[in-house]
Amino acid sequence: xxxxxxxxxxxxxxxxxxxxxxxxxxxxxxNGMQAKCRDRDGNVMDVDLYARPEDLIEGAxxxxxxxVDAETPQHFIAHPSTWLNQGRWDDLSADERADKARxxxxxxxxxxxxxxxxxxxx
Length: 122
Hints:
Elements: H1 4-11, H2 18-29, E1 33-38, E2 44-49, H3 53-69, H4 80-85, H5 94-111
Antiparallel strand pairs: 1-2
Helix pairs in contact: 1-3, 3-5
């Protein structure tokens, strides 16, 4: 059985908080969830988050591409539950997201697996 969350988890560029990420995933891909955020003026507002699993997976590929392309250090990559809770798959337009996801697929195929993210020594 192919678990879409496991597919997302394997693609996502940072591995931490899997249980929380799975809980957010289930909410977002189920009936949706409501999150609170602040606008630029500091006002709290409710945001409804819903996505299909394939949109989250495509968004994770695009985010991974951005991290690889910019050589983003691990400690600057959002935790998966944070990325989900903030609706970050929607940061790019659908066309930009699809384009970056295709680029990530090409890099992954060319490298024979997952390209390495930049390691940072403290």
